[in-house]
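Hi everyone, sorry if this is the wrong subforum. Our group has a chain we'd like a structural model of before ordering constructs, and none of us has done structure prediction before. Sequence below.
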Amino acid sequence: MIQFSRLLVVCTGNTCRSPVAAALLRARLPALTIESAGLGALVGHGVEPTSRELAEREGLNVESHRARQVTQEMIQWADLVLVMSESQRLAIGKLDPASIGKTFLLGRWSGTSDKGQEIPDPYRKSHEVFEYVHGQLVRAADAWQKKLG
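Answer:
Right subforum, don't worry. Here is the predicted structure as tokens:
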């Protein structure tokens, strides 16, 4: 069994999906170091208010999060990189070609495709979309806990 100690969770802006997914994973896998970043980060921004509200309902504290831009160094630091979409997986591969083999969809164990399920960006969408995405993040974190825990 492959041992992971450092995980990087990546989305687009690093304000909706990846910080909440990282917090969910930290709660489930406390022995691991888990960070998040964005491919087009809203650098310095906190967690988007609806995402934050849903995270806090889960008992997660995301108050101190500040969005940051993903770098090649962050990707190389991680043992495992989790992204929200196939296009993000390919973007990570462009930033650091050697890391494509350790980069997977957060929804890897969800859905019916071999690669797993993409998790859509709820940014600037309705509360219902945020709730749907949050449910996907929770299920994905639960699935990774089973695989890594």
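For your construct planning: The beta strands are 6-11, 33-38, 80-83, 103-105. The domain at 6-141 is CATH 3.40.50.2300 (Rossmann fold).
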